Amino acid sequence: QMADPFLYNTGERSHYGCLGHEVQIDYLKAYVCRPSFSTDKAVIVVHDVFGWQFPDIRYIVDLIAGHGYITICPDFFKGTKPWTSTDHWADFPDWLKNHDPMKVDKEADVVLKYLKEQCGAKKIGIAGFSWGGMAVHHLMLKNPQLAAGVSLYGRIVRDSEERYRLLNPTFFIFGEKDHTISLDQIFLLEDKLKQYCKVPYKIKVYPGQVHGFAQLKPEDMKPDDKPYIEEARRDMIDWIKMFV
């Protein structure tokens, strides 16, 4: 049985009033937030197991939009039920079989088309959290249209050298105390990227941080964690600004 990978309590979340709105794109629902001025730069946000309606992920969408990007979080679960904090972890492997973070190519294409044709986006980046971090790693190996990626604590899958041939600049963010991702795995990722990766990449581990740390809303942060959470978010935005 898998240990509960989320150490923060997803049940007791403060309410969040969103700044964006929901749209229908082809067969996908999505949450979109636009900056106050017009821009041809966009960022796709890939949600975690709690899905596209989870308040924390909408907070992140609004945050990125505030930095001048058309920001969109599509429902990568295509209308199926996201994982909830009341589900049993024993059932997680089965749930994951039907929610594979490596099977997001079609949805990414639908969203890229929408951003280019309907929003006038010319440069598009992507950031994903946990389940979404795995999806970002996958997409940065497959989709050259994504100018840059940020993968936040996506579990590291080791299968082949192909996992390290990133097409565009990618930044990997991890928490030091994440018990779903060991430091050994992170060191190995760094080694392999040194060997095989031909584009800029960065790996950073934030002291004392658990899985899921970077998407907490300000009122849900513990004082000791706050500087690291804010730093991780600044680093994420800086990476996007550098390449998108």
UniProtKB/TrEMBL annotation:
<feature type="domain" description="Dienelactone hydrolase">
    <location>
        <begin position="29"/>
        <end position="242"/>
    </location>
</feature>
<dbReference type="GO" id="GO:0016787">
    <property type="term" value="F:hydrolase activity"/>
</dbReference>
<dbReference type="InterPro" id="IPR029058">
    <property type="entry name" value="AB_hydrolase_fold"/>
</dbReference>
<dbReference type="InterPro" id="IPR042946">
    <property type="entry name" value="CMBL"/>
</dbReference>
<protein>
    <recommendedName>
        <fullName>Carboxymethylenebutenolidase homolog</fullName>
    </recommendedName>
</protein>
<comment type="similarity">
    <text>Belongs to the dienelactone hydrolase family.</text>
</comment>
<dbReference type="InterPro" id="IPR002925">
    <property type="entry name" value="Dienelactn_hydro"/>
</dbReference>
<dbReference type="GO" id="GO:0005829">
    <property type="term" value="C:cytosol"/>
</dbReference>
<dbReference type="Pfam" id="PF01738">
    <property type="entry name" value="DLH"/>
</dbReference>
